[in-house]
TrEMBL record:
Pathway the protein contributes to: Amino-acid biosynthesis; L-threonine biosynthesis; L-threonine from L-aspartate: step 5/5
The name this protein goes by in its record: Threonine synthase
Catalysed reaction, written as an equation: O-phospho-L-homoserine + H2O = L-threonine + phosphate
GO biological process: threonine biosynthetic process
Similarity remark: Belongs to the threonine synthase family.
GO molecular function: pyridoxal phosphate binding; threonine synthase activity
Length: 431
């Protein structure tokens, strides 16, 4: 399997090279040359398969022979050693909980998978890889955790000062070892732009091997399709058509769900639910893609004004917007609506949703108004404890702190402040 650049100005590469490069030399995102549907028998007997078996069947065609089958199965077993339950909270409304991993966010899946792939590729080599990553909240912690102590890999995380939650900041600034956090005077989009600029900077590239652990990297992006299959396995017995509502920021998660659909998973429709950073809902209304500076919200991991992966979604639909609209609806909600939804879900359903999950819930309910005969699943992308102040203040109850989070509460936060790209470059070249 080869991966080509969506900018079409760079040569195709293997899975291994796409993972090591992160982004193509022409600044395009890598995309698989083909997506071959899995046989019907896979979906007919999916309930008999373990998470590792499901994931292996799904990812094998993309990894090809770059990682031998047994090693790939080991990587998958280590990646997926926690639960992905679908919890029904109302009739025909369920949530897929993606927060049972070490950093309590969906990013754990992609980060752990990618860290192990990179570890495998660099196992016999002396060269050092620098993983550069931008975060609006959850990616940073998951990448720090997934890559901690991986031989030959140094991780540099850029995050926007004052725009991530306290627990998110602790998760990405307290681990030390091969992980460094850079606190950026700006927004997530500024961080993402700096990362992408570094990938084109010959002055940096001639000194170090850089890669990205954002969902622009295929090894971070593609494994996110696994849990859509796990959800399908659990909801299949309902005998209804399934709609997924995905709280969306950088749009890698929903795009991975669409790859699962291309693999043959039956899905009636996708909903991309955003906060007021509504570049995609606006695009769906106007057919015009106008990125804008991001606005800070209580669902901060989705504070993205120029989502990297939307280009992959457009490509999946050959830029045919009418075809895309048949499969995707997109709605945006402000903080007031988000808080009202959190309170309603708590009072009426007895369920504590985090702000991102609440946005997903709102998107789902909007779609279900006109499509009541479907089974709706919204993704709970992170545990409510990661947004402790907002959640406790909104529902008026205390949230217990799980052991994974307790671990980082007393550690000292350490980060380096940077203001612009020049300071990032200076740091990279001096470290
Ligand atoms: N929501 C993200 C932003 C980066 O997204 P990614 O999936 O491309 O890493 C975050 O929490 O950092």
């Amino acid at each position: 399997m080869e991966f080509y650049s969506l900018n079409k100005q760079a040569p195709p590469v293997s899975f291994k090279e796409a993972v090591i490069r992160g982004i193509a030399p022409d600044r395009g995102l890598y995309f698989p040359e083909s997506i071959t549907p899995l046989p019907d028998s896979f979906f007919d007997r999916i309930e008999d398969l373990s998470p590792t078996e499901i994931a292996f069947n799904a990812i094998h065609q993309f990894v090809s022979d770059d990682i031998p089958n047994e090693a790939l199965k080991n990587i998958l077993a280590n990646t997926l050693d926690f639960e992905f339950p679908v919890v029904e909270i109302e009739e025909n409304v369920a949530t897929l909980e993606l927060f049972h991993g070490p950093t309590m966010a969906f990013k754990d899946v992609g980060a752990r998978f990618m860290a192990q792939c990179l570890g495998y590729f660099s196992r016999n080599e002396d060269t050092q890889v620098t993983v550069l990553v931008a975060t609006s909240g959850d990616t940073g912690g998951a990448v720090a955790n997934g890559f901690l102590g991986v031989e030959g890999v140094k991780v540099v995380i850029l995050y926007p000062n004052g725009k991530v939650s306290d627990i998110q900041e602790r998760q990405l600034t307290t681990l030390g070892q091969n992980i460094t956090a850079l606190k950026v005077d700006g927004t997530f989009d500024d961080c993402q732009k700096m990362v992408k600029t570094a990938f084109l900077d010959d002055g940096i590239l001639e000194k170090m091997q850089l890669t990205s652990a954002n969902s622009i990297n295929v090894a971070r992006w593609l494994p996110q399709l696994f849990y859509f299959l796990f959800a399908y396995k659990q909801a299949k017995a309902k005998g209804k058509e399934i709609v997924f509502s995905i709280p969306s920021g950088n749009f890698g998660n929903i795009c991975a769900g669409m790859v699962a659909q291309k693999l043959g998973m039956p899905v009636k429709h996708f909903v991309a639910a955003t906060n007021v950073n509504d570049t995609v809902p606006q695009f769906m209304r106007t057919n015009t893609y106008s990125p804008k500076p991001s606005t800070a919200t209580i669902s901060n991991a989705m504070d993205v004004g120029d989502p990297s992966n939307f280009v992959r979604i457009r490509h999946l639909y050959d830029d045919d917007f009418e075809k895309l609209k048949e499969n995707l609806s997109s709605y945006s909600f402000d903080d007031q609506q988000t808080r009202a939804a959190m309170l309603k879900i708590f009072k009426e359903d007895g369920y504590v949703a985090d702000p991102h999950g609440a946005v997903g819930y709102l998107g789902l309910k909007t779609y279900l108004e006109d499509h009541p005969d479907t089974y709706g699943i919204f993704l709970e992308t992170a545990h409510p404890v990661k947004f402790l102040d907002v959640v406790e203040e909104t529902i008026g109850e205390q949230v217990d702190i799980p052991p994974q989070i307790q671990k980082v509460m007393d550690r000292e936060k350490k980060s380096i402040e940077i203001k612009n790209y020049e300071e990032l470059k200076k740091y990279l070249l001096s470290s």
